[in-house]
Amino acid sequence: MRKTLLIFIALLSCSVCVSAQKVSRSFVVGFYNLENLFDTFHDDGKNDYEYLPEGANQWTEAKYEKKLGNMARVIAAMAKDNGQFHAILGISEIENRHVIEDLVVQDAIASANYQIVHYDGPDRRGVDVGLLYRPDLFTLLDSKAIPFTFDEDTEIEYTLTKEEQENFRTRDILMVRGLLDGEMFAFYVAHLPSRVGGKGQDLRPRGAEIIYRDATRLMREFPGIKIAVMGDMNDNPTDDSMLKFMHAVPQPEMAGPDDFFSPFLPMLQAGYGSLAYRGEWSIYDLILVNQAIAQAPEGTLRILPIVKGKKKARYYGRIFIKDFMTTQEGQYKGTPFRTFSSGAFIGGYSDHYPTYIMLGK
């Protein structure tokens, strides 16, 4: 109740508080759900059969190449808008390392020289998360895949039986630690359990709890470390998984040592969305930052407000939307232009728009 009241008060006061300091250098940190980026080959132990040439989607090499080109086009368009490629880009719904390797060498983005952090995960459908980074800006120190577990040390009441918990398989959470412009950062990339069939009301909070506990451990081990958590959370920034279990707050000045600033929370309240379902917009593609980023000391990397176009509203996050990424006609007009519609290949991009934040000093 207290956190809900704080959110209400903050949203009434202002959308963001804009720093008057000049920015000498900036970096883009973002996330993009690539919507089923599968290759055309079967991976042992994975249920990827619909994404084979003879599968339900008749997933041919031509369709795969079209998909790769589309994903690269979006990343390149963001770079054009920002005057630079992302320093860090988290990605989800990727089948394996092979598809990421095919993506980063696409002509539109090859000059970024993206390097890859990826681990094969246990998801039954075979989709993972990953991270792309520019080696000229970010020095990798270590990384790990964090499994989804059902720890008893929690207030969450699990709906799955012990047997169901043992058989449950979902995406690992990726943690990548390194130096961005000489400062220590950790980036978490997640794709929390689905909402399909009304499920996951306990699973997404548990996923957020796993991330939060590991992040707080890092903050104890490396005092002052800057942490950004990103991913397709399958929840809005106003849901318990984010508010309660990620300790999210809606303004950077509200972030305490144990909190995470949630830039997309005010944007959701203002009517923005990164995906649409049955006419309702949500922002599941979230990025949150700890106090060390939200309230960074002068001369170090901090989160910056983003102003685009002539709009007066200013936020600390951006949902990247272009006409070519958006359905232009029919019943889904105005929503993300996806790869398939009603089972038919339509050659679109993703059912999610990418999101990003800017860091600068």
Note down, in words, how this protein is organized.
It contains eight helices and 18 strands. The protein is an alpha+beta fold. It has a single domain, classed as Endonuclease/exonuclease/phosphatase (Deoxyribonuclease I, Chain A, 4-Layer Sandwich), CATH 3.60.10. Strand 11 and strand 12 form a beta hairpin. Helix 2 packs across helix 3.
Number of strands: 18
The structural class is alpha+beta
- Any idea what the shape is? globular
- Determine the CATH superfamily: Endonuclease/exonuclease/phosphatase
CATH architecture: 4-Layer Sandwich
**What is the oligomeric state here?**
single chain
Key terms:
single chain, 361 residues, alpha+beta, Deoxyribonuclease I, Chain A, 7-stranded mixed beta sheet, 18 strands, globular, disordered N terminus
Draw up the topology in text.
Layout: H1 2-13, E1 26-37, H2 61-82, E2 88-94, H3 97-104, E3 115-118, E4 128-133, E5 138-146, H4 162-167, E6 173-180, E7 183-191, H5 203-221, E8 226-232, H6 240-243, E9 248-249, E10 260-261, H7 264-269, E11 275-277, E12 280-282, E13 285-290, H8 291-294, E14 302-304, E15 318-319, E16 340-341, E17 344-345, E18 355-360
Parallel strand pairs: 1-2, 7-8, 9-10
Antiparallel strand pairs: 1-18, 2-4, 3-4, 5-6, 6-7, 8-13, 10-13, 11-12, 14-18, 15-18, 16-17
Summarize the structure.
With 361 residues, this protein is of the alpha+beta class. Helix content is 22%, strand content 26%.
